[in-house]
Write a structure and sequence with these properties.
Length: 127
Amino acid sequence: QVQLVESGGGSVQAGGSLRLSCVDSGYVYSLYYLGWFRQAPGKEREGIAAINSAGDSTYYADSVKGRFTISRDNAKNTVYLQMNSLKPEDTAMYYCAASLSPPGVRKRLSADAYNSWGQGTQVTVSS
């Protein structure tokens, strides 16, 4: 139903910043609950941030809380992930995802609560 495309990944040194963007081609973008996930080499996929349709409620994994900020601009059909104070442990493929209905509290950062996924953008942080 929707098509998501991530951009903004790259290689940075520890302590640096990156801003990821995810554009949704869906016509009813403003109704979707959106999230960011990542998967590091040899590790399981991890939910790191989520935002409701209105953009006034956000949720973060403990591993990124205080360093990453999720936001959205519904007029531009775009969700962002501002990543500051990057660490080598943040190295991963980053994906955005959309849910057609609001996940429950315990599912907001769970991959199985989301219906559509982007192709991913690589983030590499060197020490």
